[in-house]
């Protein structure tokens, strides 16, 4: 039996840095789209075609949430279509803040941790509000591939992903370069 760790938190309890990092690496157009980001899908399609494989997903936070809540993990066109329909419906029913809060509490961060609070405790033994900037960056980078970027499984890859998140924050002017 696999142990599941899930600790629900309010969106207001999550540090602003974490929200900015998450949006930057997972869905930078979150507050501008209605569940599906067509330009993101097009960009991912072009990048994947050039790479002859899946390099980028193009999924919005809402799509990731709908997949987590309602769908199987299979990779198929039918599942992607269902995900898109569910995402648009979620956006009609819930506010962006509610969607973000659900995402923060539902998404898998590795090692049985669902949600950002459980991840903070799993990886650093503290509440999400007490994380340092580099700890926040490590956790914000996990949803893309929790097993690949787990500091327990591959500290080098985890550090590289964390540094990528911090670099993106600096490039966008959310944090100072130093």
SSE arrangement:
Elements (H helix, E strand, L loop, with lengths): L4 E2 L9 H11 L11 H14 L9 H10 L6 H17 L2 H11 L6 E2 L1 H9 L8 H8 L14 H17 L7
Parallel strand pairs: 1-2
Helix pairs in contact: 1-7, 1-8, 3-4, 3-5, 7-8
Major sheet: size, sense and barrel closure?
2 strands, parallel
Q: How many distinct beta strands?
A: 2
Helix content: 40-55%
Radius of gyration: 16 Å
Arithmetic mean pLDDT: 85
End-to-end Cα distance, whole Å, is: 45 Å
Oligomer: single chain
* pLDDT < 50 stretches: none
- What sequence of helices (H) and strands (E) makes up the elements? EHHHHHEHHH
How many helices? The count is: 8
- Classify the secondary structure makeup into a structural class: mainly alpha
Sum up the overall morphology in one term: globular
Percent of residues in beta strands: under 5%
Strand order of the largest sheet: 1-2
Give an account of the 3D structure.
This protein has a two-stranded parallel sheet with strand order 1-2. The mean pLDDT is 85. The protein has helices at 16-26, 38-51, 61-70, 77-93, 96-106, 116-124, 133-140, 155-171, and strands at 5-6, 113-114. It starts with a strand and ends in a 7-residue tail after the last helix. The protein is globular and about 40 Å long. With 178 residues, it is mainly alpha-helical. Helix 1 packs across helix 8.
């Amino acid at each position: 039996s696999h142990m599941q760790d899930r600790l629900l938190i309010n969106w207001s309890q999550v540090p602003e840095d974490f929200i900015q990092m998450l949006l930057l690496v997972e869905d930078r157009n979150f507050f501008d789209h209605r569940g599906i980001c067509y330009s993101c899908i097009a960009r991912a399609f072009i990048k994947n075609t050039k790479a002859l494989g899946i390099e980028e997903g193009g999924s919005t936070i809402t799509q990731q949430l709908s997949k987590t809540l309602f769908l199987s993990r299979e990779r198929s066109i039918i599942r992607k279509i269902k995900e898109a329909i569910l995402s648009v419906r979620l956006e009609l029913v819930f506010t962006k803040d509610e969607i973000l809060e659900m995402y923060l509490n539902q998404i898998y961060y590795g090692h049985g941790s669902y949600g950002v609070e459980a991840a903070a405790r799993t990886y650093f033994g503290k509440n999400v509000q007490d994380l340092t900037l580099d700890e926040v960056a490590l956790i914000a980078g996990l949803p893309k591939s929790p097993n690949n970027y787990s500091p327990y499984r591959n500290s080098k890859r985890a550090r590289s992903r964390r540094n990528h998140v911090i670099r993106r924050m600096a490039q966008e002017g959310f944090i100072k370069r130093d």
